[in-house]
Design brief:
- By secondary structure, this protein is mainly alpha-helical.
- α2 crosses α3, α4 crosses α5 and α8 packs parallel to α10.
- The chain is elongated.
């Protein structure tokens, strides 16, 4: 089972998060060893209360719970419904998740690449860099290489390493991958610098945000 010190950390964080105005996600399983925590039922009730307040993050978290099926009975259709509700309430990240459902096809969402593309566009317009990346992939796969590379450049400059790797792969493929004509060396160098700077900034913000949490004390 989950170590007692893990449970203590999770319960403390849940209590703090429950009262925050920015409504940080409530932990329902241990982020260290993935065990369901004893306070899961209480956290679910808190989550349901936040859903009644139309909290997009709460709907997204509940969606993951039903998709994973670790704490409640797995129900992918209900999970998808909650993801879509999160999008309606303004979640950008949920757009990419729903797009992946339709891109890959599931029992809850049969493959529909046109619908996936719509959700990718919505996520990108809301500023979600993973949506921007997958939108680039969709465009590139359709033969719209310039559009795809534009999206990857934007995502790379926002700090997404995956998009930068795609740009590098095309640039150094010696013509074996289409689209190199849309990636100048100066463009690639700039994307690399900006991507690195964005990653450093994000890491610094995360360190500052979690400076009061001693994660090293909770290693499994």
């Amino acid at each position: 089972g989950c170590a007692k010190e893990h449970n203590g950390f999770i319960m403390t964080q849940n209590e703090k998060n429950a009262g925050k105005k920015d409504k940080q996600p409530i932990f329902l399983s241990c982020p260290f060893c993935r065990e369901a925590i004893p306070s899961s039922k209480g956290a679910l009730r808190q989550l349901e209360e936040r859903m009644l307040q139309n909290d997009a993050n709460a709907f997204a978290t509940m969606a993951s719970i039903f998709i994973d099926g670790d704490i409640v009975s797995k129900d992918k259709l209900k999970g998808l419904d909650y993801w879509i509700r999160a999008i309606e309430l303004g979640s950008a990240a949920a757009c990419c998740t729903v797009a992946s459902f339709y891109r890959c096809g599931t029992a809850a969402a049969p493959m529909d690449k046109k619908r996936a593309f719509i959700f990718e566009q919505a996520g990108a317009m809301r500023g979600d860099i993973m949506s921007r990346h997958t939108l680039g992939r969709s465009e590139y796969e359709k033969g719209k290489h310039e559009f795809g590379i534009r999206h990857w450049t934007i995502a790379a400059e926002a700090g997404l390493q995956m998009s930068l790797d795609y740009l590098k792969a095309i640039f150094f493929a010696n013509g074996k991958l289409p689209g190199k004509e849309f990636i100048g060396k100066e463009t690639l160098d700039n994307a690399f610098r900006v991507c690195h700077a964005a990653q450093v900034e994000v890491n610094s913000e995360e360190r500052a945000k979690h400076s009061d949490v001693e994660y090293d004390d909770f290693r499994c």
